[in-house]
Amino acid sequence: MHNQTFINISKIIERDKKTSTYKFALLRGTIDIIQDNSPYILVKEHTVEIPLGLLIEKWLIYYYPFFEAGVKIPQIVGKNTNIKFQNLLVPIINYYKQQNGLSGFYNDLRIKGISKEINSEFYALVRELKYNIVKNPMQYIGNSINKGLYTIYQYQNNATLTNTAIQNTNWLINSCGTFTIPRDYYDVFQMLGSFISGTDNILFKWAQFSVKASNQTVNPETVIGEILKSPITEREVTSTKNLCQSVLQKEGAIICVWSGKQIIQYEVDHVIPFSIWKNNDLWNLLPAEPTVNKNKLDKIPSASLMQRQKDLIIHYWELIFAEEKERFENEIRVTLLGNHPFNNWQNKAFEQLLTSSKYLIETRGYEEWNI
Question: Which of the listed residues 199, 227, 255 is the one where a domain comes to its end?
Answer without folding.
Answer: 227
